[in-house]
Amino acid sequence: xxxxxxxxxxxxxxxxxxxxxxxxxxxxxxxxxxxxxxxxxxxxxxxxxxxxxxxxxxxxxxxxxxxxxxxxxxxxxxxxxxxxxxxxxxxxxxxxxxxxxxxxxxxxxxxxxxxxxxxxxxxxxxxxxxxxxxxxxxxxxxxxxxxxxxxxxxxxxxxxxxxxxxxxxxxxxxxxxxxxxxxxxxxxxxxxxxxxxxxxxxxxxxxxxxxxxxxxxxxxxxxxxxxxxxxxxxxxxxxxxxxxxxxxxxxxxxxxxxxxxxxxxxxxxxxxxxxxxxxxxxxxx
Amino acid sequence: xxxxxxxxxxxxxxxxxxxxxxxxxxxxxxxxxxxxxxxxxxxxxxxxxxxxxxxxxxxxxxxxxxxxxxxxxxxxxxxxxxxxxxxxxxxxxxxxxxxxxxxxxxxxxxxxxxxxxxxxxxxxxxxxxxxxxxxxxxxxxxxxxxxxxxxxxxxxxxxxxxxxxxxxxxxxxxxxxxxxxxxxxxxxxxxxxxxxxxxxxxxxxxxxxxxxxxxxxxxxxxxxxxxxxxxxxxxxxxxxxxxxxxxxxxxxxxxxxxxxxxxxxxxxxxxxxxxxxxxxxxxxx
Lengths: 285, 285
What we know:
The structure is a homodimer of 285-residue chains.
Chain A: E1 2-8, E2 12-19, E3 25-32, H1 36-47, E4 54-59, H2 88-96, E5 100-104, H3 105-116, E6 124-130, E7 134-140, E8 143-144, H4 177-181, H5 183-190, H6 201-222, E9 226-230, H7 239-251, H8 260-263, E10 264-265, H9 273-284
Parallel strand pairs in A: 1-4, 4-5, 6-9, 9-10
Antiparallel strand pairs in A: 1-2, 2-3, 6-7, 7-8
Helix pairs in contact in A: 3-9, 6-7
Enzyme class (chains A, B): transferase
Family (chains A, B): Belongs to the ROK (NagC/XylR) family.
Organism (chains A, B): Virgibacillus sediminis
C-alpha cells in the first residue's frame, strides 16, 4: 500500500511517497510554497505518478484542528495572506478523492521521532522546533496530545536574561519564548541571521538560557521522558550542552529528571521528520 | 457496591463512603494527619463500619506515580519527615486487603469536577489548587493526564510584578508560581495569612497577576476547555474577575479563548472534590 505525505511549510512543500513503512521513502520532491491553488496542483502532479491510497498532511500553522469546529482543517489567522482561512483539508480531499489526514508540522515531526527516531522507547515525547518561529508538540503512548485545539505551545512565559536589552518580536506578547528565542527574534535582535552569528558566544548563551526556560515550563507540566529539539536554529550544535546546563541549573534539583543528556536530545530523522510524520498520521488518526 | 475514598492531606485526612455514585456520600469523617501508622489505623477504624469493596486515595505530594517504578505509590522527598518515602499504597493494600487506587489530591479533584462539577461537558479540564502550596492536574476525555510522573505542575516560570519586591519562597526556584502565589508565599511576603489581608486590594491584584500568568502557561500548552481554580486562597472570590482580566490582557488576543468567564471558573463540589475524586479513581484506573 502506497502512502503519500505532504509537509506543508510556509516557505516550501515537501511531498513524499512510502511503501507501507513511512520511513522508507521511495520518491520525494520539494518546491517553494506559492499561492494555495498552484501549490496544491504541483503536489497533485507529483502524486499522480504513484497510486497512493491515503494522504497525510503536516501543515504550518495556525490551523483549526478542533474536529467539532466548522472550519476544521482550515488555516486560521496566518500572516500569509493567501493562505488565511484557506480550507486546506477540504481542498486536498476534493483534489485527491482518497482519505486525507492532517495535523500540524510540529506534531507530525514529534510522531515521526517518537516512532522511528530519538523518541523511540519513550512513553511521553516532546518535540520542539526552533526555526523562524517556535513550536512544540507532544506524543503520548502513540497519540498526539491535543486540547480544544493545538496551540503549537509557542508562547510560554520566560524571564529576560539580565544582559539582553531586546524586548522581543512576538506581536501578541513581545517577550514570550517565540518573541525572544525564535530565528526571527535572533535576526531582529542582532540584525543578522543566526547562521551569520556562529562565532558570537553570547548569542548562543542567551538563546540557550531562554530555550531552557521554555523546556522547564514544559517539563514541570508534562514530564516527558524525551525532549527532542530540532529546527534550523538548532543546527548550531553548541546549543545542546548549553541548554542542558541551563535546564539543570534552573530546575535546581526539583524532580528527578535523570541524565539530562539523555533527556534533551537532537532529532534523528535528518530533516525528514515532518514528511515521515505526515505519512504516519494516516495510521494514527 | 460501597466505595471508600480517602483525601490524604498534609494537615487532615478526609474519609468517605459512597453507595455506587461517588457524589452521594453516605458517611464521612475528618481527622488531623498524624504519623502514618496512627493515621491509617484511624482511617481503618472508620471504614470498618462499612463493607467497602474498593478504596481510592487522593494524596498530598510528592508521590511516585510512575507505575514502572519500584517505589510506585510511595511518598517522595516530602518535608513531612514521618511521611518521607512512606509506601502509602502498599500499606493501604495490606491493611484493607481490597483493591486500592491512588493518585494526587489535585488530579482526583480535577476528575471529580470533570465528572460532577464545573468541568462537566468539557473534553479537556484543568484543575488548579491554590492553598498552602500550588498545584494543577489535567483530565482529558475522562482520563487523568500523566507523563513519566505527575509533577503537580506547580513550578512554572512567571514574571515578577513591577511593584512586588518579594523574591519568592520556593526552595528550588525562588520566584516560580509556587514561590510567588501560594498561600505560604502570601504569608511570608506580608507576615500575615491571606484571610487577614482581605481588605488589601494590592495583595489580590498581585496574586491575580501571577495566577493569570500560570494559567496562560498552561493554556498555551494544553488548551483546556475549562480551567477550574480552587483551594483556600481562592476563597477570596474577588480573585476570579481579576484573574480573568489579567489573563485576557496577557494573552492579548492570541488564540480564540472564548468567553473568559466561562473558561476560568470556581469549583462546584463544596470542598468535597478531593474525596469524591478519590472514589472516582476506582472507576478510572
